[in-house]
């Protein structure tokens, strides 16, 4: 995939180096904490908490320099793609969403948060293990670039378009939030608790379809190279609930799915790619794009 711009810096929040680091004290450190506690007349655990909070507010590498930026060349390459894709995805929806909603809805531009290992969102702690996600409470997309190494190595879905698809899916959630779809799903989940997982699957599949709508635009604009579409489909298949369960040695239980099977994710991404319009993304089957 080849983008025609380097992306806007205003589309990115770089929080790398602001993660929470564990407090590590040797024997000497423990003795010092004990002495401070005696002198101040305070609980040692309280003193440890003060030290930990100070460490978390001033993160540094082992050499004392601020721990910002990519950790290796692989992340350096991924960062460039992420910056380009974030701007391209948002530029597309800023122009397309009003057209696709007959002028009823504008696309509210947001930001992608780059973090390393851990940061905080209004939805709670953001950790590398959770993978990329969208937080409706602060309307931001979060990603640790280490995820892309996992996508290529463990899930066998390398390539710039596969990486961009992941972002397009998360920005799809931002569109759902701006259209009120996400809020209606959450209300429905509270009312129909037995269908909570099913409703979440339909929400996630719709985000896959919206990613495909952007992908169709990228294809029309000549940004895709040979094999890119297949890479996107591979990425969609790789992170299906059934595939992840199998890779983890767990029983495949459709009733426990939260994102959809590999076949479902491929199907809805393909629908978005083939039709190039949000009307293709009616996963709830009622013509309103929402439950």
Account of the protein in words:
The longest helix is centred in the first third of the chain and has 28 residues, at 73-100. Helix content is 52%, strand content 7%. The strands form 2 sheets. The protein has a 4-stranded mixed sheet with strand order 1-2-6-5, with helices on one face. It has helices at 27-40, 44-57, 73-100, 146-153, 160-178, 181-191, 196-220, 228-238, 241-247, 262-275, and strands at 12-14, 112-114, 118-121, 124-127, 133-135, 140-143. The chain has 291 residues and is α/β, with parallel strands linked by helices. The chain contains 10 helices and 6 strands, in the order E-H-H-H-E-E-E-E-E-H-H-H-H-H-H-H.
Fill in the keyword field for this structure.
single chain; 291 residues; alpha/beta; four-stranded mixed β-sheet; two-stranded antiparallel ribbon; 10 helices; 6 strands
Q: What proportion of the residues is helical, as a percent range? A: 40-55%
Summarize model confidence as the mean pLDDT. 87
For the sheet with most strands, the description reads: 4 strands, mixed
What is the number of independent domains? 2
Please report the total strand number as a whole number: 6
How do the strands of the widest beta sheet line up side by side?
A: 1-2-6-5
Residues in β-strands, percent: 5-15%
Low-confidence runs:
52-61
Secondary-structure blueprint of this entry?
Layout: E1 12-14, H1 27-40, H2 44-57, H3 73-100, E2 112-114, E3 118-121, E4 124-127, E5 133-135, E6 140-143, H4 146-153, H5 160-178, H6 181-191, H7 196-220, H8 228-238, H9 241-247, H10 262-275
Parallel strand pairs: 1-2, 2-6
Antiparallel strand pairs: 3-4, 5-6
Helix pairs in contact: 3-5, 5-7, 5-8, 6-7, 7-10, 8-10
């Amino acid at each position: 995939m080849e983008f025609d711009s380097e992306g806007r810096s205003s589309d990115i929040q770089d929080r790398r180096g602001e993660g929470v680091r564990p407090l590590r004290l040797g024997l000497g450190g423990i003795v010092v904490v004990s002495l401070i506690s005696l002198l101040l007349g305070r609980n040692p655990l309280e003193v440890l908490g003060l030290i930990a909070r100070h460490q978390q507010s001033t993160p540094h590498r082992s050499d004392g320099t601020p721990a910002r930026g990519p950790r290796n060349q692989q992340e350096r390459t991924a960062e460039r793609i992420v910056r380009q894709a974030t701007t391209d995805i948002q530029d597309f929806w800023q122009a397309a969403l009003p057209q696709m909603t007959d002028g009823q809805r504008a696309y509210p531009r947001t930001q992608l948060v780059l973090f390393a290992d851990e940061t905080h969102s209004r939805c709670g702690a953001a950790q590398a293990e959770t993978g990329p996600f969208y937080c409706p409470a602060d309307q931001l997309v979060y990603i640790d670039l280490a995820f892309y190494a996992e996508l290529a190595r463990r899930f066998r879905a390398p390539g710039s378009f596969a990486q961009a698809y992941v972002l397009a899916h998360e920005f799809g959630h931002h569109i759902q939030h701006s259209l009120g779809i996400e809020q209606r799903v959450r209300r429905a989940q509270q009312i129909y608790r037995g269908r909570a997982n099913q409703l979440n699957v339909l929400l996630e599949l719709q985000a896959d379809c919206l990613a495909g709508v952007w992908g169709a635009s990228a294809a029309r604009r000549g940004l895709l190279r040979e094999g890119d579409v297949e890479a996107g489909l591979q990425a969609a298949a790789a992170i299906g609930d059934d595939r992840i369960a199998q890779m983890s040695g767990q029983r495949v239980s459709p009733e426990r799915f939260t994102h959809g099977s590999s076949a479902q994710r491929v199907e809805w991404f393909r629908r978005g790619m083939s039709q190039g319009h949000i009307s293709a993304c009616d996963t709830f089957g009622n013509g309103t794009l929402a439950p």
